[in-house]
Each structure stands twice: as C-alpha cells, then as structure tokens.
Amino acid sequence: MSGPQHCVPSTDILAARAKVAVVVPATNTIVQPEMEAMRPPGVTNHVTRMLLPPRPYDDMAVYQQALQTESGGLEDALQLVLPCEPHVVAHGHSIHSFRGDRARAEAETERLEALCGIPFITPSMAVLKGLEALGVRRIAVLTPYWPPADAMIAAFFSACGYEVVAADGLKTTGPTRVAQVPLDAIRAGFRAVDSDRVEALVHVGTNLPVSAMTDAIEAAHGKPLVGVNVATYWLALRRIGIADPLPGFGRLARDY
Questions:
Q1: pLDDT, tens digit, for every residue of 210-241?
Q2: How far apart are CA 51 and CA 253, in angstroms?
Q3: Which end of the chain has the lower number of beta carbons within 10 A, N or C?
Q4: b/e for 168-179, b at 16 or more Cβ within 10 A?
Q5: φ and ψ of 44, to 5 deg
Q6: Are residues 143 and 204 in contact, defined by beta-carbon separation less than 8 angstroms?
Q7: Beta partners for 138?
Q8: pTM reported for the whole predicted model
C-alpha cells in the first residue's frame, strides 16, 4: 500500500478538497453518521450499501464457516459510487478484513485499489496503521461478535506481531442489534478487556457506536483507543493528503 497522496482538488462546490466514498453493509446504521461527524470542511462523504448473506449466531460451527467463506456485494456497491468520482474509498465492513495475516490484508488492499483506481482503505489495515502511529504493541480488543470471530481477529493481530492481552465480544444477536448495544454495555466491555498490561484498546465491528465515546474511554482508561471507524476515516483522509485534526474522536484522529 502506497503512502500519502495529494489528490486532485475536486470541482464540486461542496467538496472543494475531496470526496470520500463510504461502503457499508445494508444493515449498518452507524458508519454513515459517525463518518459524517468526523468530516472536515471541504470534504463530502458518499455512501453506498452492499448486501451480505446472514451470519447465524445460534450455530457456532456454521458461524465459523461463514467467517471464512462469506462473500458480499462489494463490487456491485462500488459500481454505484465510483461514478461520482471519489478520491478514496473507506470500507465500513470490518470483520472479513481481519482474516489471515498482514500479507493477506495488503494483497486485498492492492486488489481493491487496482479495481477502483484510487486508494481503498480496509478496516484491518487502518487499525494496523493507527497502532503503528501510536507505537504500541500490547492490545485488548472489544467486538460485538461471538467467540469464533473474536478468535479470528485475535489471531490476525498476533500474526501481525501484536500481543493480544484480551479479546472479547458482546455477542449481539444479529447485525442490526449491534447498533442497539447500550453505551453502558460498551463501557463495561472495555473495562472487562483492559488491564495494566494493555497499552492500547482496539474496537472492531463497524456497527457498534464507539466513535463518539473515544475521548471518554481514553480518559477513563488512561490509554489510547483505536476504533475501527475512526481509524478507517482517519487513514482515508491521510492517504489523500488531508491532515486536519479530528477533535472529539481520540488521540489518533486528533494528533496523528
């Protein structure tokens, strides 16, 4: 994946600096408002939705199989948003980008960038870049998922050289239920995975409403939080040369 690029300024009246394409699952109601809240002046976001097959939560064997084989309508969704001539794509679907290791994640990024002809930000690479910027190695991960997904995500970070001190999920019963998790339950989830050994907290699961809580979580725990939506939008902007601080969304978005 290449470094920062300075995109050709947009001629759109409301997007004098850049247009960001945002791809989300059809069931996701959190990515769009969270990334809109992070949007700096002169940048516009343009959301497209993709269909995904259901992932059962009442049969862990089938759930595990779905993690490895699920394919969705990403390419179809891109066909609906690329004609507006965005400068970068931010992918708001995280779980399947955390399969395997960094080499697989980089290869997937390269494939998608070749397909789109512009930078494509996958959540896994965005979180890795965020952790690299912060210079941390020992992490604790919170997700909305079930144990097979938590294990897959922990294995990904371990393969990328991180020590996963803890990884746990909130076990939500279906994709739309993720957006309904009470904020107190999210706070409790971070408390459950944190410990003195943890250098940074990580959130994976784009439909979990964590972004606006980032400053408060960091203050409560005394360590940075790399949330998947914040990291994805942060890296999307940085890849096209927009370095504005994004206050209110944690140390990574504000200081790097």
A1: 999 999 999 999 999 999 999 999 999 999 99
A2: 29
A3: N
A4: bbbebeebeebb
A5: -120, 145
A6: yes
A7: 163
A8: 0.94
